[in-house]
Amino acid sequence: MDETRPFEGGCLCGAVRYRATAAPVRGVICHCPMCRRHSGAPALAFVHFPAKDFAWVRGKPRLYQSSEFAQRGFCAECGSTLSMHEEVLADRMLIAVGSLDETRARFYSELVLQWLPAAARAILEASMDIKTEFISDWSREKIALGQAQGRAEGRAEGRAEALLHVLSARGITFDNATAQRIRSCSDIAQLDSWLERAVSVRSTDELFG
To answer: Which listed CATH number (2.170.150.70, 1.20.970.10, 2.30.40.10, 2.30.30.100) goes with 7-127?
Structure first.
């Protein structure tokens, strides 16, 4: 990693930009409730730049007093998470790693991996494999529910079309409203009942009677 070039970054909309002329002195990944809420992510990664080597070069973040001793910085225009300001670390500027420019993307990924314990790093690297697909238990439950609903809807649709075919084959006339009533029915038991009647009824009134 080339530590002689400035570290630059900013918010999503570009209203706030910064530059650090020295390499970070520390990196932190925090998953406390405040950091999760501030970033909207499972964890928030920061790098600590020496305050004397850091400057806001375009605009400045708006600060939110998140606790008695700390403030959190964000862009007032686009809401991007940018910084953390703590009284006990007044000689440092804590910057959200995700706000670094794309030119530092390699540094970002290597730094995050470096901070993690070996076991966690192995899991993260494995999850980044293009062949790996992560699906949470909640997602699996909803997918399974959707598949079950889809199968049920497919069965209902098939029965509805079969019923209309039987009526047509027997010469029993029906209007669009009747066809729509049959096609919109999702009750399999009701459709089966109508199918049984369809072989002997003489009209749709008898079918629904």
So the answer is: 2.170.150.70
pTM of the model: 0.52
Rounded CA gap, 209 and 204, in Å?
8
Beginning with the edge strand found earlier in the chain, give each strand of the sheet holding 7-10 in spatial order.
7-10, 17-20, 54-58
Q: Where in the chain is the domain with CATH 2.170.150.70?
A: 7-127
Beta strand pairing call for 44-50 and 70-74: unpaired
Sign (positive/negative) of CA torsion 188, 193, 196, 198?
A: negative
Kindly report, residue by residue over 110-153, the tens digit of the pLDDT: 666 665 666 666 665 665 554 545 555 666 676 677 667 777 77
DSSP three-state, residue 118: helix
Distance CA 115, CA 26 (A): 10
